[in-house]
Write a structure and sequence with these properties.
By secondary structure, the protein is an alpha+beta fold. The protein contains 6 helices and 5 strands, in the order H-E-H-H-H-H-E-H-E-E-E.
């Protein structure tokens, strides 16, 4: 019995030492103030056409013709990121147009145990997913809204979370989809095109401040 107690004591000390040696992950950053958000209010909108302000994200409508295509792209992207195989995820993030610096930054992001992607990539079961779009600002005219709806393409933010339902949070604006350490979700932007000369999709991953960008 004494030997068992000593064994458990040493095991506990070793675990505590190991935990102490591991740096603590940073808490989630506070929400950014509205004036700090320089994200485009509507994908593809002309700079200066309307006052730039953070636009709330809204879940992509279930009857959107783009939803099945965005969902399929999101499934393919997540599987590639979980593999951590650059040969699988690089083509989805621009291929030869993905710079060497951005590629290294993404590799570090995927390997960082404190990154927003860490829990999502390590999850044994499929993480929760939310597909979000930008709401059209009230200042847009009917003609502008019609023009946006008629574009041969669409983009959406796809976010994943490994947290349980009660603890799960989603970004409220594009500024919060920055994949900063401590976020309870990880996000990627998927741009889909139906143009005959360039059909298909590409993903973009926002990298935390100071890490570059894609």
């Amino acid at each position: 019995m004494r030997a068992l107690v000593l064994l458990l004591l040493f095991a506990g000390m070793a675990a505590a030492t190991s935990a102490a040696a591991m740096p603590a992950c940073e808490p989630a950053p506070p929400p950014q103030a509205a004036q700090d958000d320089a994200s485009p209010i509507v994908p593809g909108s002309v700079d200066g056409a309307v006052d730039v302000a953070p636009v709330p994200l809204a879940e992509l409508a279930s009857d959107s013709p783009w939803l099945p295509r965005i969902e399929a792209a999101a499934d393919e992207l997540l599987a590639a990121l979980k593999s951590r195989d650059v040969r699988r995820w690089k083509p989805l993030l621009g291929g030869r147009w993905l710079g060497a610096g951005d590629q290294r930054a993404i590799e570090r992001l995927l390997d960082d145990r404190c990154s927003a992607f860490a829990a999502v990539l390590a999850a044994d079961t499929p993480p929760a997913r939310k597909i979000l779009g930008w709401t059209v600002p009230p200042g847009y005219s009917a003609d502008e809204r019609t023009e946006i709806a008629a574009r041969p393409g669409a983009e959406a933010l796809v976010c994943w979370s490994a947290k349980e339902g009660g603890d799960r949070r989603w970004p409220r604006s594009a500024a919060e989809a920055d994949n900063a350490r401590g976020r309870g979700f990880a996000c990627a932007r998927i741009v889909h095109s139906s143009l005959a000369e360039a059909p298909g999709w590409r993903a973009f991953i926002e990298l935390p401040a100071g890490a570059g960008g894609v």
